Amino acid sequence: RDVERSRGLGDVYKRQRTPSRESNYNIGRVRMAGNNIILQKRDIEMLKAVYSYRFLTRDQLMKLFGFNTVSCINTRLRKLCQANYLERSFLPIAIASCQGVYTLGCKGVDVVSNSMIVEKNEVERLRHKNGKLKEFTMLHHIQTNDVRIAFSNCVDTRIVRWDYEPQISIDTKRKLRPDAFFQVLYDDMIYSFFLETDRGTETIKRFVDTKVSRYLSMIKNNIHKQMFGINYFAVLVVVKSKTRLKNLYSAISQKVNGVFWFVEREYLSSESVTKAVFIKLGDRHRRSLFGGDSR
Prior knowledge:
The chain is of the alpha+beta class. Helix content is about 35%, strand content about 25%.
């Protein structure tokens, strides 16, 4: 039911069920010749998800696939890693918890390529690209995935498009690169969003002088219509704290009204994405993202 397209990953997630909505995984098993593990249908969906999301933590995989216990998912992930279908790494405790981060392993390449009908070279290219990312960039991407999972797992919304880090040319010198562009179907209407996952490492002034000004230029020049085919959109800024939200709100409100929406990470979940937990620029009362202009 949950259909998701990820153009940012080479259009590899074309009109397929997402793992979080897959049912009855235990019907049938696929034996991979020469390996000491029998891949179940859920295993294959997990490999496809890790490829599509690029990086997933154990807790994120639990949310997507509904494992009942931590020990159950740990056992399965360990077997997939030992068989080289997945690879596990750890971010330094100084910037994240000691929880493992999972990426596609060398033997997972063929599985993903065959099951998603993607060129093997493309799967390998992204896999090697993931291995070169710095730790802070990886953590930033994981936090972006938290937002994607929240909308994906919500029973009332359906992601119809998700592009990681689209490159938007504002003019010959300036570019805008949101963390994601995504569209959500809710109540028979499609809503379009640019996502900024704010970790608080960028100064308020820099955020306003670069990102805010470029979003305004994009609107002024109708670049969003030309590049994404949309008339309306919101910029969703996910922040780490109420203090950060207050400071960003105050600074951005001096430049523009509306367009920007804010929410603290602690308030964002699959149960809350349709609730009144968001703050729109120009309105300090919390409200739902949905109900206004669609695409």
